[in-house]
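Much of our argument rests on the idea that a fold can be written as discrete symbols. Part of our work consisted of pairing the sequence of a single chain with a tokenised description of its backbone. No coordinates are needed to read the tokens, only the vocabulary itself. The record that follows shows the chain in one-letter code together with its fold in token form.
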Amino acid sequence: MNMATTIRSRSMLPMTEARPAARQPARRDWPMTPEAWHRLVVEVEELRAHVFVLAADTTADDGVVDLPIAQAIRRLQTLAGVLEGASCIDEPTCAVIGRQATLREDDGETFSFRLVFPGDGEPAQGWISADSPLGAAVLGRRPGDVVEVAAPAGRRAVTLVGVR
């Protein structure tokens, strides 16, 4: 019996109904620093163990979704998909997951952010998810590249001026 079967049997709802729909990153290449790749591998391993422990500790079969299990499974699915398409890029001038990018708007204003794993974006902290419109536009680019970003207010062009 696999983990999904074990977890499904603990709920009266099918897996697709037992957890909120996860925003799965589109299948693609996910370039990242070697350090980000290592963190990703460790987190996926830890999540697999965590999901197993959570599922083993669930004894009630009352049809109620166990939110910590659902959240851990959703995170594991997202990061396992990223790991499948991960590639280590050790080029300091390439905008990849784990690096900070600085962009310049047409009006000359600059802003910086760190590219992070899909699902980890927190703009207020300066973290932009690699699968967001901005993150996807910048991913794999180098300083001097002009990228077009689909923003809520419309498409706009920005220039990548730095990567650290």
